Amino acid sequence: MAAQLTALFTDDGSDYSRTMVTAINEKRTDEAALIEQAQCQNSRAFESLYRMHIDKVYGICLRMTGNVSEAEDCAQEAFIQAWNKLDKFRGDSAFSTWLHRIAVNAVLGRMRKSKREQDRILAVTELADSGIDTGDTGEMRDLSEAVDRLPEGARNVFVLNAVYGYSHDEAGEMLGIASGTSKAQLHRAKRLLAQQLKQQGFRS
Amino acid sequence: MNDDKLMQAASQLKQDISPERDLWAGIAAAIETPAPRRRMPIWAQAAAVVLLVGGSSAITYMTVKDSRPATVVANPGMIFETASFSSRYTLGPGFQDARNALVAELNVELEKVSPETKADIEVNIELMHQAIFDINEALEEDPDNILLQDRLLRMYREELALLRRVSGLTRNVMLRNDI
Q1: Which of A175, B1, B14, B87 is surrounded by the most beta carbons within 10 Å?
Q2: How many CB pairs under 8 A join A and B?
Q3: Which of A46, A68, A76 should one mutate to test binding to chain B, selecting the residue with the greatest count of B CBs within 10 A?
Q4: Quick check: B25 contacting A, CB < 8 Å?
Q5: ipTM greater than 0.90, yes or no?
Q6: Residue A139 lies in a domain
Q7: How many Cα atoms are found within 13 Å in the side-chain-facing hemisphere of B12?
Q8: Once rounded to an integer, what is the mean pLDDT over residues B170-176?
Q9: Annotated domain spans of chain B
């Protein structure tokens, strides 16, 4: 992801591009320093990393679980696991990717437990009326709720691939499925979403 | 809605969603609690087991070794034949143990007396052993001879009494019930 972002903002000589490249590099430098400090058991540095990444981690958890309290638990668990595994982070991938992978694992772990999925479906049904606050508005809110109603496999792939921009290889690796399976689940998700949205009169 | 528009709409969904409450407090409480100690590597566990077993065995050996009475090696010349009662009877293990212990202690005591006394004692014991040997041979010929059986028993008793006397021990002489 970070590499893709950098590629988008390569320095082509314009002031805008130069500013963006500088901002990304400064953020990376700050993040790298914080990671190093956190690896030395500096909890203040880790708190800064938490502040930098919590919204996206929580977003993934919320969109995958469709339940506020489950998402909070998963996000907390993800950061606790990240702290415990921080010495294993070698920078082979972006810190955010590494963190998101842990978050996805936390969600999948919770989903596997007992009747979590059943609970989630019930929760989504209840919350669909009250509307979970994802910050989406208008038709985006309808789409967000339709995503929540997708079956687990299709929903997870759609969230990671279509919403968060991970490739099928990356999504497959995070979810523990083959890249081809990820593609098939995305196709299924799109078909189901199209049906739902058509019923709701979503504008094409 | 076609696939492209759906994917485009999905990419516009918010990625960053702030939790309704600050989750840091729970995370901080968890990470500031000392983590459970990591499991010792398997090789370290194996080494610990070997060390524990080896150490305890060594301590047990040293303790037993120190508390065990000094082993007295019996003089081969003083070891008599296995106590027997002609070919039809053997003497009980209690008798054999008592006699072996007395013989061993006798060897220690003999080192403390003068050479002349030692020689006298050894001669007496040798005479007793010879008498016992002779009676046993006679019993081989006549196993049911009551007189020979009684004589052999008395010789055994006298042997033990002599050994006890020389060794300065206070043990009771073996009774017939012990045989």
Answers
A1: A175
A2: 97
A3: A76
A4: no
A5: no
A6: yes
A7: 14
A8: 47
A9: 39-68, 76-178
